[in-house]
Amino acid sequence: MTSYQKIAIVGAGVAGVTAAASLRQEGYKGDITLLSNQRDYPYDLPPLSKTVISSGTSVEQIMLQPSEFYRSNNVNLLLDWEVAEIDPIALQLRARSGERISADAIIIATGGRPIEPSIEVRNGASYYRLKSYSDAIKLRQMAKSSNTGLIVGAGLIGCEVAASLRQCGCDVTLVDASKAPMERVFPAHIRKHLTSRHQAEGVQFKFEKRLLGLDFSTACFEDGTNIEADFILMAVGSRPNIELAESSGIEVFNGVSVNDSFQTNYQNVYCIGDTANIQGVGRQEHWTSAQAQGMAVAHSILTGQRYVPRTSWVWSDQYDLRVEAAGNLGEVEQFHTRSGESTLIEFGTKQGQVVFASGISSTKEMRLFHRIIEADLVLDTAELTDASRNIRELIKENKVV
Q1: How far from 176 is each of 28, 132, 154, 155, 180, CA to CA, in Å?
Q2: Which of 52, 141, 276, 329 has the fewest Cβ atoms nearer than 10 Å?
Q3: Residue 400 clears pLDDT 70, i.e. is over it
């Protein structure tokens, strides 16, 4: 068991809240302080681009834990407590107000934030970002009161917001510098299917356009195109919040550098979630990875067991479609398609082994593909592409349990 009597967690997103919950679940009896720079109880971020905009879901409905969880589990949750400085030697946290907290171990879980584009903004032009519940509500209000919205960035968040805005009745134009939407997340057939659905819902796509600046209500692009809209959302990616760690002398490189126990260059200071760059793994910027790391850091602190990364899992809800992906898209050498009556899966192989899969309305089959990837199983691709073949039976035949 750990000798830590007091653990402070900086950041109350899914990684930080999961770490606090997991410490208690694994029997930790010491003090836990969870620090949030938000005024609301910790809430989940994925619904912001989906049901909060499309349906007005309340912040209470998307809380990561019920408010009574913190009291009943003796977690000292401090809201609106922004950490200005970490002393990694004395193991102290200083708030902007000057208040200080001491601990035996510190877990950094500061997450990421939307990238601010380097563009010229003239004549009172402004744009929205999506980083909080209040941002999502503002977008919903704009969609309800405006005719046209422009989204710059056709990644996962941009496409989810586009679907949500259309469900509010707002006309949407989605612009990106790439040649297709969601290129980093989903393969070609899945993207094509999603693009067709967006277009059927009335979304206009404009690709290979680089934004130069904003002039009042007009977006100006490198090719001379100008697009006017009632409001503009920037969704051009995210970056890790490393400034607090970096200014405190903690080693950073494309995130906060940690080993496979999540320790930084100071052994009693840990980092998890979007901010952590794990040795031999890299940064994992997905909700499921943040949750897994929250559980893993608690287990590592209490048992000394090192982190073994699981196969990544990503999902997206757009209109009535559930889209999922598992594995590493970048490793794929060859793609294959499994198409059923109401399902579509595109999976990728490397030297005959399934290393990636993505599906639309195929949750049950996708969970089986996830098992195949985790087991490093080599199956006959002809059988996997045959929608009449039962994937579970194929797994059983190859003795995967």
Answers
A1: 47, 23, 5, 8, 8
A2: 141
A3: no
362-378 per-position pLDDT tens digit: 999 999 999 999 988 88
Would you call 161 exposed, middle or buried from its count of C-beta atoms within 10 A (0-12, 13-18, 19+)? buried
120-234 has which fold? Answer: FAD/NAD(P)-binding domain (3.50.50)
Quick one: pLDDT band at residue 379, thresholds 50, 70, 90? confident
Mean pLDDT of 244-253: 96
Predicted model pTM: 0.93
Q: In b/e form, how buried is each residue of 329-363, taking b as 16+ CB within 10 angstroms?
A: beebeeebebeeeebbbbbbbeeebbbbbbbbbbe
Domain range 320-397, its CATH number among 3.30.450.20, 3.40.50.1860, 3.30.390.30, 3.40.50.150: 3.30.390.30
d(CA 72, CA 34): 14
